[in-house]
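FORM 12-B: Structure-to-Sequence Request
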């Protein structure tokens, strides 16, 4: 699968006709994208190195382009594939994939499509692609806003027909705009997988167990290897928790290349180690895998590593099966909700000892880069609790004796 590599870029300064390191300024983090065969995507590398946006924006662009590269490889499509038929063009197909696999309350598809289109605009401006190639249709749309004095204004802006409209949901949500599942729904989902043990459900059961009980991201889970599990060490403050190193140098991918430890409660650790070493479904898939992939805990039915696309396909099929069997509460299920559920339950328990303690614990457990992300879980619970009290009073006053 494609991957992102970050590296420090030290600023230079021109002095006496020569370029020398400007040691008065801190190095900036730059990003490069590599295809699965180890070759760099040179156009994306140059594009990211030339961007003058905020570091957080550049980082976001890098991971959006990586996701696009991953999708291209999974579907065996070249990034310059623009045939006459619109529906066969790489950008149109990627747009369809984003819409199909999107959560109704997530802004990721819209952001990701914008990032990819902006990259192609740069490619075209730099003359790296024939300017006669038709990649999209430009469109003018009206944007309504309110100025500082409260008057409504409308401005015309140019966009493309590839744009994916997105309006923020009015639902109180947590990380990535997703709602956590209730404990009851979490257990119902896991029990369904256990009671319907197809090959795919056996894999998804282990996958969801890690999501619900470690809070690990899907990128981390799909890159965990048996040796990572066996090299785990007990937490010095609580031996019931096993720590598995993750981040650059460990083989386990983390968002933004954060270094840290995945936390496994001992029963979960024992379960996943047993799955990796003895589960028949996994061993069958391992037998089909290339040598460099055999130690991956999670493999597709063809013995290949899971990519973002193959995981989304598996979750989509699972979601259809749940609805078919009457579990309609999962009509918009996304795997990342397992992480949101883990973080919410952690926050709920540790808020009993103070908000600051809860933020610290959620941050460490979920490996958040910034505490502001951890705070969303605390805010979600506080808003939910306050909203319930306010709704009780509103219902009493609004409905009155006619309905109550």
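FORM 12-B RESPONSE
SEQUENCE OUT:
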């Amino acid at each position: 699968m494609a991957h992102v590599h970050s590296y420090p870029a030290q600023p230079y300064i021109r002095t006496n006709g020569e370029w020398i390191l400007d040691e008065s300024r801190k190095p900036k983090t730059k990003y490069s994208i590599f295809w699965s065969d180890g070759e760099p995507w040179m156009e994306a590398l140059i594009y990211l190195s030339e961007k003058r946006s905020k570091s957080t924006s550049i980082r976001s662009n890098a991971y959006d382009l990586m996701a696009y590269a991953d999708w291209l490889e999974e579907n065996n499509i070249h990034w310059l594939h623009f045939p006459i038929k619109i529906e066969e063009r790489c950008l149109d197909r990627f747009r369809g994939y984003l819409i199909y696999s999107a959560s109704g309350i997530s802004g990721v598809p819209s952001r990701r499509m914008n990032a990819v289109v902006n990259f192609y605009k740069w490619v075209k401006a730099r003359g790296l692609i024939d300017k006669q190639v038709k990649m999209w249709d430009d469109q003018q749309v009206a944007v309504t806003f309110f100025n500082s004095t409260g008057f409504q204004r409308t401005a015309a802006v140019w966009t493309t027909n590839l744009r994916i409209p997105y309006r923020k949901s009015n639902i109180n949500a947590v990380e990535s705009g997703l709602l956590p599942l209730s404990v009851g729904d979490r257990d119902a989902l896991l029990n369904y997988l256990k009671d319907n043990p197809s090959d795919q459900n056996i894999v998804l059961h282990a996958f969801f167990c890690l999501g619900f009980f470690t809070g690990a991201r899907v990128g981390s889970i799909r890159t965990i290897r048996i040796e990572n599990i066996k090299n785990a060490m007990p937490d010095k403050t609580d031996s019931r928790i096993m720590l598995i190193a993750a981040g650059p140098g460990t083989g386990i991918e983390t968002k933004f290349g954060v270094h840290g430890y995945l936390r496994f409660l001992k029963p979960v650790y024992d379960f996943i180690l047993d799955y990796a070493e003895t589960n028949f479904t996994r061993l069958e898939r391992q037998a089909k895998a290339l040598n460099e992939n055999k130690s991956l805990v999670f493999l597709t039915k063809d013995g290949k590593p899971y990519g973002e696309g193959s995981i989304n396909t598996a979750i989509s099929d699972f979601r259809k099966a749940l609805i078919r069997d009457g579990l309609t509460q999962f009509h918009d299920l996304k795997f990342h909700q397992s992480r949101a559920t883990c973080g919410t339950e952690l926050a709920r328990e540790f808020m009993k000892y103070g908000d600051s303690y809860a933020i610290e614990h959620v941050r460490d457990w979920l490996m958040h880069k910034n505490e502001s992300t951890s705070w969303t879980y605390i805010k979600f619970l506080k808003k939910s609790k306050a909203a319930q009290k306010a709704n009780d009073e509103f219902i009493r006053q609004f409905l009155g004796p006619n309905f109550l």
